[in-house]
Amino acid sequence: MSGYLDPSGIAEPDLEAVRRIRRAVLDSHPYRDVLPARGLRVGGRPALTGVDPADVGRYVVLSVRDPLGEEVASAGIGHAQRLASAFGPAEPVAATGLFQTSTASLEGERVSVVATGSGAPELELAMVELMEHTEAEVFIYFGTAAGLHPFVHPGDVVVSTGVVREEATTRAYVDPAYPAAPSYDVVAAFVGAAQDNGVAVHAGVTRSTDSDILGNGRPSVGGYLQPHHRETIDYWIRAGVLCNDREASAVVTLGSLFGRRTGAVLGVTDNFPAGRSLKPGAGMADATATLVGGLRRLQRLDQARVRGGRRYWAPPP
Length: 317
Description:
It is a single chain. By secondary structure, this protein is α/β, with parallel strands linked by helices. It has one domain (39-307): Rossmann fold (3-Layer(aba) Sandwich), CATH 3.40.50.1580. Helix content is 28%, strand content 23%. It is built from seven helices and eleven strands. It has helices at residues 12-27, 79-84, 120-133, 184-196, 232-238, 248-257, 284-307; strands at residues 41-42, 45-46, 59-64, 90-95, 100-106, 109-116, 138-147, 157-166, 201-209, 243-245, 261-270. The strands form two sheets. It has a five-stranded mixed beta barrel. A two-stranded antiparallel sheet has the order 1-2. Helix 4 packs across helix 7. 43% of the residues are buried. The model has no long low-confidence stretch (mean pLDDT 94).
């Protein structure tokens, strides 16, 4: 598998019709024959992640190496290894200057955790390589978030049901009107796992923005603001947005564009608009439990769907 992942059960003539549409622009690209069609490679592997495709599981979790995500950093243990170990014994499988990847077992399947730097552009680099070169089918963003809506507290967990695309990376791919919509079965699995674990969870719309400071209505150097920044916070609260991050929309949008299922689990570390200051690590233990339990639930949902011969999962009546 590489590139687009089309749904199962589609008739071959219909698949070929959409393939022709996909190829039309590429076939007329004047630089098609000199550009690397499937990205850069070093030593036969994708150059930026450095992964051997055989070492990457069906489920992939992308997570920023974020100092706000833990109260005390674990000396000598990388972020990918630490998070992958929450699923069980984990093995480091790749490391480059940009990304570290570890893979663990998930009840007969495998889950790979890719630790990244911050922001949608870096998530794009990892996503593209993984979708081009591996068998991964489900992509999850896991990380911290800044609470926005007044009822979202530090320590809470947010499962995104939709992401405001206020970053520029995904706009290079598709019109801003295209929705960043996590997969409904992934959302259901995460919400169910959170409730099973007694987690303070919210399910709703979140927002990704490039600027963590002015983009969230916070003054920059020397108190720098422009008039429209004063309205940022209340604008998105009125729209019902729960929290802000910088990466989830890249994972959800790119995954959806190329046929993967997606989701986002966020631990809330602060809510300055509501007067609740930063608590490093707040919510991350519960977010981790939600991530692990949610992927286990999703695996069981998939197994039941396959046994029933159905293309889509639906809750029992």
